[in-house]
């Protein structure tokens, strides 16, 4: 049977009695467990659980296969233990994909410390925002902003680390100057001029925006005083040359997730990197969420 992940999550719900307990036991998110149970029920064409106010109870069909599933788990554990022991060296290739700004402006000290501690790990840092990179096995670990209320792909294991917010920033010199000259909106590739908000403080916005294909140039343009830009709070708040524009909204874009493959997530070098990255992100969750700073 080629549905081991679904069987494993089925057993965890059967044992824990709730999806939350199963997710905690397996170190995955709540939605991953729900999707796995749904896939297994569709493949077997039967309901395995009754959903009660107190949790999940096995149906007759679920009860009929739970012992067989437990036997599969025992056999899988033996296989995994034998193979897993071969891949616990703190060496070998390790590909980590994350947004460029996260690497350059947030995590580089953490990655430097990781490299110094584990010099035999051939770390490769890939700047990208595409989850597909991980799904195609082009990387082993991904740090991603999952937009809105979306969830990571079903084939990945994920941990939600913190909220991610953006706000409007301009150079401190531009705000203090209160010049009557029109100020430009500095927009990314898919951004549009805000329809529900206009900067105060005497700013007059130009009719024509300035567009950028990547964030670093947009960020530097804001620092140079070219105009008003929507930037990640962890970038804008950390730079003394920038200030939040008075009255500007702070927007919750989505959540920061750390994602891995099901078949590589337990190798030692992957776990070591995940531990280092998740510890740093959680310690700096307020920076990413834009908490504690006012315009």
Write out key terms for the chains shown.
295 residues; alpha/beta; Arc Repressor Mutant, subunit A; D-Maltodextrin-Binding Protein, domain 2; 2 domains; nine-stranded mixed beta sheet; two-stranded antiparallel ribbon; 11 strands; 24% strand
Structure commentary:
The chain has helices at 4-16, 19-26, 30-44, 60-84, 100-117, 132-135, 172-177, 215-223, 233-236, 268-283, 285-289, and strands at residues 49-52, 55-58, 92-98, 121-127, 141-147, 156-171, 184-187, 210-211, 227-232, 242-244, 251-261. It has 295 residues and is α/β, with parallel strands linked by helices. It has 2 domains: 4-86, Winged helix-like DNA-binding domain superfamily/Winged helix DNA-binding domain (Arc Repressor Mutant, subunit A), CATH 1.10.10; 90-295, 3-Layer(aba) Sandwich (D-Maltodextrin-Binding Protein, domain 2). Strands 3, 4, 5, 6, 7, 8, 9, 10 and 11 form a 9-stranded mixed β-sheet that branches. A two-stranded antiparallel ribbon has the order 1-2. Strand 1 and strand 2 form a beta hairpin. It is elongated, with a radius of gyration of 24 Å. The N and C termini lie far apart (57 Å). The mean pLDDT is 86.
């Amino acid at each position: 049977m080629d549905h081991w992940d679904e069987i494993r999550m089925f057993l965890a719900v059967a044992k824990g009695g709730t999806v939350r307990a199963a997710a905690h036991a397996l170190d995955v998110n709540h939605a991953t467990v729900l999707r796995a149970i749904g896939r297994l029920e569709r493949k077997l064409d039967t309901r395995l659980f009754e959903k009660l106010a107190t949790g999940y109870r096995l149906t007759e069909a679920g009860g009929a296969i739970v012992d067989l599933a437990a036997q599969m788990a025992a056999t899988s554990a033996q296989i995994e233990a034998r193979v897993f022991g071969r891949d616990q060296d703190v060496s070998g290739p390790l590909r980590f994909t994350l947004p460029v700004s996260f690497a350059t402006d947030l995590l580089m000290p953490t990655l430097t410390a990781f490299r110094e501690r584990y010099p035999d790990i051939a770390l490769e840092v890939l700047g990208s925002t595409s989850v597909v990179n991980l799904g195609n096995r082009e990387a082993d670990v991904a740090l991603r902003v999952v937009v809105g209320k979306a969830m990571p792909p079903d084939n990945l294991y994920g941990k939600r680390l913190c909220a991610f917010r953006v706000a409007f920033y301009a150079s401190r010199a531009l705000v203090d100057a209160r010049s009557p000259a029109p100020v430009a909106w500095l927009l990314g590739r898919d951004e549009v001029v805000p329809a529900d908000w206009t900067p105060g403080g005497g700013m007059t916005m130009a009719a024509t925006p300035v567009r950028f294909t990547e964030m670093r140039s947009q960020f530097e343009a804001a620092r140079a005083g070219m105009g008003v830009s929507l930037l990640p709070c962890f970038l804008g708040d950390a730079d003394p040359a920038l200030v939040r524009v008075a009255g500007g909204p702070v927007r919750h874009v989505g959540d920061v997730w750390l994602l891995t493959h099901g078949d590589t997530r337990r190798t030692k070098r992957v776990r070591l990197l995940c531990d280092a990255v998740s510890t740093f992100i959680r310690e700096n969750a307020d920076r990413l969420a834009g908490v504690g700073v006012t315009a």
